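Two proteins were folded this term; both appear here.
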Amino acid sequence: MSNLFNIKDYVVVITGGTGILGRCIAKYLALEGAKVIILGRKEEVGKKIADDIVAAGGQCEFMKTDVMNQAVVEQNCNDILAKYGKVDTLLNAAGGNMPGATIGPEDNFFNLKAEEFQTVLNLNLTGTVIPTQVFLKPMVKQGKGSVINFSSMAAFRPLTRVCGYAAAKAGISNFTAFMATECAKKFGEGIRVNAIAPGFFLTEQNRSLLTNPDGTYTKRGQDVIRQTPFGRMGEPEELCGTIHYLMSDAAKFVTGTVAVVDGGFNVFAM
């Protein structure tokens, strides 16, 4: 039997790949032999990440995109197909949050700003639907491919504060399940759709919420650690193995799942 985990020469597209988690995953996959294309809005940052990965011995490039603009994403896809001829995996890592879509400890539901709530839904949920619709087409023509979405702990349980983000990520988990069936029934067993649900990892978005300037945990950070049996935050590298598995032939019979990588956060009940 061939190496089920072999991803050499896989063409992998990562939206939102300029964040802490995305860049770590991109480097890991590139060094495993994949050809990685990072899609993001921050051109200078993205090119620097791609250059660093190439310098480390991987194959990677950056393309500027807007996951909310279908025409832009379609052009990205056309450019990728013209150069690489295929797309094997789409990793939908683009997303984010906004203050107006959250409800702080001193606020209540009436402080929620509907416009920012809608923006967060669009960025996380529609910003996953559009790239999926675009990059799924070459996968269907190939008869093989995988989509891996980014869900969250907030999709499993309604965490305080993050009202809009939680609603969007719950939508991601539902969309993942829907698309798994949709693709299998209409396009065959070669197309798989799964998601990964990270626990708590320090990123640009949540660092100030979870840690103080001196690196100690805030009240929110302490709550997270208390809820996590491993007693710590996750390291970005700890997402890579699960993603590698889901995109490889080792997961050939796996579709519609949300793989949890959380140090036990979601199962802790006491």
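Next, the second protein.
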Amino acid sequence: MITSDLHIHTRYSHGAATPAAMYAAALAKGLTLLGFSEHSPRPRGFDYRHEYREQLSRHLPDYAREVLALKAAPRAGTRGPCRVLFGMEMDWLDGEEDFTRAACRAYDFDYLLGSVHFLGRWGFDDGAEPWKDASQEECESRYTAYFTAWEAMIRSGLFHIAAHPDLIKIFSVEQFHIWLAKPQSQGQIRRCLTALRDAGMAMEVSSAGLRKACREIYPAPPIMALAAGLGLSVSFASDAHGTDDVAYGFARLASYARAFGFREYVFFDKGRRTSLPL
């Protein structure tokens, strides 16, 4: 059974609810650990069409204050007390490592998620239109570039958990699986996962893809098999943006992970890893 959700967003970025409302949903769903991981502000030039940078920057102190208040006064839900962890999801951006390092030090975070949402200055998950007419070759070039950036993110040593490992498949899942079956693609991902293991990080297994266009858990089965073979640690997440998303699909995630031989999962508190039975 999964009782922790380590990837949660709020109204202070592009979510729909307050931290308090997200916490109430966690209590109702029987979680014993909720990790808030709001987005970190990005520098200008790394932009989405519906950009939330200014709102996030303005309200970051509010986010920190509200989450820390929940952390200081845990309440009991259906399975007992639910702890809160104070985290953030950091974007790995080309040429912006100094910016990212500063963001990682902005608060005394319990843990940090590392994510890749941009290839160069393009937010590749910001709508399906740029993917509609892309050839298989164009898609494969994007997948290779994504995992190159993902490996650099891992090797930076800044993060505890690698979020939604194959987010790049969001609008092109069939093309992604064609690429993923190729030996050179498997080799690239194995190198990434080996770096992740050696860095002491965990790989996020996320139900968010089930709610997205790809309709598939992050990461895909071949990546799960590689991760299991390398002895990686995993964490679980919903990437919730509203109260209904908290712990979404967790029974399915548990069955999915067990099918690959995973029997425990982890969380990080001030960099200290703790394992829980699955």
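The longest helix spans residues 53-72. The two ends are 5 Å apart (CA to CA). These notes refer to the second protein only.
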